[in-house]
Design goal:
Layout (H helix, E strand, L loop, with lengths): L1 E6 L3 H15 L3 E5 L3 H7 L7 E5 L2 H4 L1 H11 L5 E5 L4 H9 L4 E4 L5 H14 L13 H15 L5 E11 L8 H12 L7 E5 L2 E8 L2 H15 L4 E3 L2 E3 L1 E10 L6 H17 L4 E4 L2 H17 L8 E10 L5 E12 L3 E3 L1 H9 L3 H22 L5 E5 L2 H6 L2 H12 L6 E5 L1 H6 L2 H13 L2 E7 L6 H4 L6 E4 L1 H4 L6 H16 L3 E4 L5 H9 L4 E2 L10 H23 L7
Parallel strand pairs: 1-2, 1-3, 3-4, 4-5, 11-12, 14-16, 16-17, 17-18, 18-19, 19-20, 20-21
Antiparallel strand pairs: 6-8, 6-11, 7-8, 9-10, 13-14, 13-21, 14-15
Helix pairs in contact: 1-6, 11-12, 13-15
Length: 563
């Protein structure tokens, strides 16, 4: 029995929703309701229910606030938001804030409600890598249709990954033992929430993501690796061949039937062209997948080959123009591929186990550089970026402490920058790690603030020194009035929480002047300095100091030097 909690204050809407659930479930759901904000919040995090339906108007219009707060603490089931707002932007925002689905009240039927609950439950973290036991083409089509109906109202896309597995003679794996062995291997290749559907002789994987193409390619590589070793079926060793076809929504089709047909054609083409490979329906995606694969292979061992370097971008105090810090940014000059853009290789690196060893190298190198500059009379806070994966898989506190000890560097000279995603996905262990680092003197910042799912409500619960405003919100200031309002709010709220603010990507005098007028603390961007190799950075800083010496004297007489 699935336990459903309804958070709906309007009596008529509550009764109607409960009636729809009763009609659709035929007793499969146990439905209860909660009318107060605090008790609803408690029930959504204590494991009493499997799924939640929250009306936007709940608790005097605080339904969306409840959604956001519960997401921070970790809901014990998916949340479906009910609303009267028929606006794509609102639905996209609600999904970013944690809703598994958004339903328009006036369009709810027993069928649509049951379908929404079923799909939300399949994708919840309580059922990682869900497996649907269905091989009827009609049931598969309906499952895909349900995904598409929801995704049309969200910022996410969908990849359909069609996997055909056969033995070396071309025969399908038809025994129950063999099918289970294949299924288990496939499940180990998928992310939490991906949907695996056995379909006759094939397996279909549904991958929902903002960029499903690269994720589907990554999953396909994992599948090919997993299926490369023979199966053991009834005391026999059976070598396997794998062919994978991938189609994307909406690029390769807008309807379930069209997408399923295209995946069948694509997997057939992959099989005909040599097996043990995958391909996309579209040529550009195939080219992109090949490029990403080449980069992934080249990244393996790049640090050991000395192909990585660090460049440093200056950070300046906006009240007096002093150089106060630098962000360490990794650069890659590949022996075979030449110079590769960070925007191209960092996402690949972060999706692999290699990110851990590379982050160790970055932290060690940045700490050593900071110590060298300190010895030369240029004490700066040098910041390094640490991914969410690093925190989840590695001993970040130990890594940082070892780097400080090896370099002989004071903790106050090293900073770490985190992504918003880490705040949402964090565990008590991660929060303890951050607290210990900050107590030791490490400066902790949240990077690219405003571009992810978090808000200041998340940030205030974490040990944090600095918020970095992303370039997206700095661009066009002060003419862009929306960005101006966003920056003003971030600065004011950050200061009220005792945090400083760094504005990233500042490229014009107008942007800098506006940020100074709202009391932003620090500026970083091409206007004042591009990322530079350490020798160039040091020469730039010394030249800047020499040029500023007369200004400093005037500043001592009461005039303020500006950045």
């Amino acid at each position: 029995m699935t336990r459903v909690l309804l958070c709906i204050n309007n009596a008529e809407d509550l009764l109607l929703t409960a009636a729809f659930l009763d009609e659709a479930s035929v007793g499969a759901y146990v439905v209860e309701s909660e009318g107060t904000y605090d008790r609803a919040k408690s029930a959504m995090t204590d494991g009493s229910y499997d799924i939640f339906m929250v009306d936007e108007s709940f608790a005097d219009g605080r339904g969306l606030t409840l959604l956001r707060e519960v997401r921070l603490e970790g809901p014990r089931g998916p949340i479906i938001l009910l609303t009267s707002r028929n606006a794509h932007d609102f639905e996209a925002m609600a999904i970013r804030d944690g809703a598994a689905d958004v339903l328009l009240r006036k369009e709810i039927t027993a069928l649509s409600l049951e379908r929404a609950l079923r799909h939300a439950l399949l994708r919840t973290s309580q059922h990682p890598t869900a497996v649907l036991n269905q091989d009827s083409p009609e049931s598969v089509r309906k499952t895909v249709e349900g995904c598409l109906a929801r995704l049309r109202r969200s910022p996410l896309g969908l990849a359909l990954v069609n996997i055909h597995i056969e033995d070396s003679s071309g025969a399908s794996v038809d025994s129950g033992v063999g099918q289970r062995a294949v299924r288990d291997r496939l499940q180990s290749c998928l992310r939490e929430g991906d949907l695996l559907i056995p379909v006759r002789d094939n397996f279909l994987v549904l991958v929902e993501d903002a960029e499903p193409g690269p994720i589907a390619a990554q999953i396909s590589h994992h599948v090919l690796d997993a299926m490369a070793s023979p199966l053991s079926v009834r005391n026999k060793t059976v070598p396997m061949c794998t062919s994978i076809g991938i189609c994307l929504f909406p690029e390769d089709g807008d309807e379930a039937e069209e997408l399923l047909y295209n995946t069948s054609i694509t997997v057939r083409d992959a099989r005909a062209s040599g097996r043990n490979k995958f391909q996309f329906r579209s040529t550009p995606m195939n080219d992109l997948a090949k490029r990403r694969r080449a980069l992934a292979l080249a990244l393996d061992g790049a640090a050991e080959r000395g192909e990585f370097t660090l460049h440093y971008q200056p950070q300046l105090d906006m009240t007096n123009g002093d150089l106060v810090g630098a962000e360490a940014l990794i650069r890659w000059e590949c022996e075979h591929l030449g110079r590769v853009s960070p925007g191209e290789f960092i996402p690949i690196l972060e999706s692999s186990e290699g990110i851990n060893s590379v982050t160790h190298w970055v932290t060690d190198t940045a700490a050593q550089q900071a110590r060298q500059w300190e010895d030369r009379g240029m004490p700066l806070v040098v910041s390094v970026n640490i991914s969410a994966r690093q925190f989840e898989e590695d001993d970040v506190e130990g890594m940082v402490n070892r780097a400080l000890k090896a370099a002989g560097l004071s903790a106050k000279r090293l900073g770490i920058e985190l992504t918003e995603g880490l705040l949402i996905r964090s565990t008590p262990e991660i929060r303890t790690c951050l607290t210990n680092l900050r107590n030791a003197g490490i400066k902790v910042s949240v990077d690219d603030f405003g571009t992810g799912y978090a808000s200041l409500a998340y940030v205030k619960k974490f040990p944090m020194d600095t918020i970095k405003i992303d370039r997206e919100f700095v661009c066009g200031l002060p003419v862009d009035t929306e960005n101006a309002a966003i920056c003003n709010s971030i600065v004011a709220l950050a200061h009220s929480l005792g945090m400083s603010v760094v504005a990233e990507g500042v490229e014009t005098e107008g942007e800098e002047e506006f940020l100074r007028s709202i009391n932003c603390n620090t500026v970083q961007g091409f206007l004042r300095g591009r990322p530079m190799p350490p020798e160039q950075f040091e020469a730039w800083a010394k030249e800047r100091e020499r040029a500023a010496t007369p200004v400093k004297k005037r500043h001592d007489s009461g005039r303020v030097k500006r950045a």
